[in-house]
Input
Amino acid sequence: MWSLPLLRHTDVPPRVTENFILSGYRFPDYSLLQCLVSAFRPTNETGNFWTHFLPIFIFAFHFVEIFEWEGAPAPGEPFFYPAWNYFFGVLYLLLASSMAHLLNSMSLIIREICFFVDYGTISAYTVGSSLAYYYYIHPQAGVPKTGLGTQNVSEAQSEREEEPSPAPFSNSSSSILHFHPFFDSLYIPCSCLVAIICVLTCCNTRQQWRKYRYAVRTLVFLLPFFISSTPIFYRLLSPSPYPISSQTPSSYPSPTMATFFYRHCFWLVVSAAFNISKIPERLSPGKFDIWGHSHQWFHCCTFLSILDELHMIKVEIRALLLHPSLVIAPTTNPQLPGPTIYSTFGLMLLLQGCIASIIVWFGWCAYEIYGPVQKGLKAH
Output
């Protein structure tokens, strides 16, 4: 973090409008080694780095638990493809954000590219979440029964024909038929399209709309939240698909999913409030330059929201493992295919390619804008 008008080596940049952090800035010509060392020095980016780098290990610790559950298939089975895409989406988000804050002092141009990549990983993360919601949050969304064990397709089909449909599930079987067209054809494409729009908008705020950039970036990610959360909204408004008799603490009943989702939303709202308000440094400029400024709290709250989202997804994965006969309604033929390499990893790679092309374009624009400024900085 440093001020663009800064043209000389100094720890205190000129005071500019809405700049409440007055010291701890790094000059924009650090070498890679100097940037790495700055992670252990008191600058206004030190906390920004650690509040997203350390959570990587916390998230990984909670994620790998799903492979240890009884009845869970091997980690490389198709059942876990959406989970792995979600994991990599979060990993790239946290890693890109921490590296962007650590390396952005190498040059003005690299600074812009770092945060373009940061916005891109946020959008990729939202699509990773959508894949997890698509295959786990709604039991009929597409994970076939065969994905939970060694049964072949004919065996699974015969069991679906023989097993009676549980009463709670039959209540929602007819309503899901009205939801199939959106899920089958529009949900994932809409998530990808919105993710690309978000990258374009957020990258553009670094070159236009700068006065309202924090509000725009915050509000623009409300759209992917509402699109991605469609399966959750449906589940919250529908009867639980799991038998009432199984609603025990060990079986992770569906109401717990709602609890985690509400907490997930709460932390998102708090993080948005910190990002827009610039509190506490707005109230006391200069006193939160190194530790405790709003962006660090923004990082902490966004990670807490991701952690609750992970717990929410784990609740549903556990429920699917405990009730494999309810993955697809026994009286309903599967309308959607199960997860495949192409529908999960392939989709994410395609999306990353689109995002990368956007980053390259805005990176070139940044070079055109900041190239002459960077030469002036070196001249000093």
User: Anything to note?
Assistant: The longest helix spans residues 167-204. Confidence is low (pLDDT under 50) at residues 1-17, 144-177, 245-254, 328-334. The two ends are 20 Å apart (CA to CA). The chain has one domain: 32-379.
